[in-house]
Write a structure and sequence with these properties.
It is a single chain. By secondary structure, the protein is mainly alpha-helical. It is 64% helix and 0% strand. Helix 1 packs antiparallel against helix 2. The two termini are 44 Å apart. The model has no long low-confidence stretch (mean pLDDT 82).
Length: 129
């Protein structure tokens, strides 16, 4: 609720600023119109960025809540996401920003051996070796 209020205030203030600053600076005609359009677009852009990040966070939270009673794969991905977020390493802290490789196959089909001998130096985030 707060980000929506903040973006609304930014939008209103940019509109007021766009309307009032021109005459204070002594602008008229085309230069006044250009200033008003630029300030209004700047405010709308700032409000849009705030709303974008707020909605992205809401979707991420909803997805995390939706994983609570999911399948085994959902549970493993959720565990991996939590472990990555608390990892003591630099770099991305989310599975969304990392390349991910799923190795699927029958039991005893050399999946683990293939990954360990690949030279990638993988880190197990969820599941078991």
């Amino acid at each position: 609720m707060v980000p929506i209020l903040v973006s609304s205030v930014i939008l209103v203030l940019s509109g007021l600023l766009a309307w009032l600053v021109g005459p204070v600076l002594g602008l008229t005609g085309t230069s006044l119109l250009v200033l008003r359009i630029l300030l209004a677009l700047l405010g709308a852009g700032a409000a849009s960025v705030i709303l974008y990040f707020h909605l992205r966070e809401q979707r991420r939270d909803a997805a995390a809540r939706g994983m609570q009673g999911g399948s085994d794969l959902d549970t493993l991905l959720h565990d991996a996401e939590k472990r990555l977020a608390t990892a003591q390493r630099t770099g991305p802290k989310s599975l969304d920003s990392l390349p991910i490789l799923f190795i699927l196959g029958e039991t005893n089909s050399a999946k683990t051996t293939a990954v360990l001998k690949s030279g990638f130096d993988p880190e197990l985030l969820a599941g078991q070796v």
